[in-house]
Specification:
Oligomer: single chain
CATH class: Mainly Alpha
CATH superfamily: 23S rRNA-intervening sequence
Organism: Ancylomarina salipaludis
Helix content: over 70%
InterPro entries: 23S_rRNA-intervening_sequence (IPR012657), 23S_rRNA_IVS_sf (IPR036583)
Number of helices: 4
Number of domains: 1
Number of strands: 0
Order of helices and strands: HHHH
Protein name: Four helix bundle protein
Radius of gyration: 15 Å
Shape: elongated
Length: 115
C-alpha cells in the first residue's frame, strides 16, 4: 500500500520530467537535464526500495540515499532558476524539493538513531 510520501515523491518525479521537456535543447541544458532527471527519479525509486528494506539498517541506508538524491535535485533546480527566463514552475518544484528534503531528513535521522 502506497503512503503519502511515496505518492508525493512519485508526483515530484513526474512533474520534474514534464518541466524538463520544456527546457531549451542547448548543450548546457542537456547536461543539466540529464543530471536532474537521474537524481529526481532516483529519490522516489530509493524510497520505494526502502519500503521493502530487509533490516532497519537497509531501510535507513535507502532513505539516506533518497535524501542525498533530493539534495542533488534541489541543486540542479536552483541552477535552472538562475539561468532561465520562465521559472515560476521551477520555483514551485524547488519549494517542494525543500519540503521533501525536510521529511526525508527527519525520517533518516530517526531511522539511523534507532539502529
Amino acid at each position: 500500500m502506497e503512503n503519502d510520501l511515496q505518492k508525493r515523491l512519485f508526483q515530484f518525479s513526474v512533474d520534474t520530467i514534464k518541466e524538463v521537456r520544456s527546457l531549451p535543447k542547448s548543450r548546457e541544458y542537456q547536461v543539466i537535464s540529464y543530471q536532474l532527471l537521474k537524481a529526481s527519479t532516483s529519490v522516489g525509486a530509493n524510497y520505494e526500495e526502502a519500503q521493502a528494506g530487509v533490516s532497519k539498517a537497509d531501510f535507513s541506508n535507502k532513505v539516506g540515499i533518497s535524501l542525498k538524491e533530493m539534495r542533488e535535485t534541489n541543486y540542479w533546480i536552483r541552477i535552472i532558476i538562475e539561468i532561465s527566463e520562465e521559472n515560476a514552475s521551477w520555483i514551485s518544484l524547488e519549494s517542494e524539493s525543500k519540503e521533501l528534503m525536510k521529511i526525508l531528513g527527519s525520517i533518516y535521522a530517526k531511522s539511523s538513531k534507532n539502529r
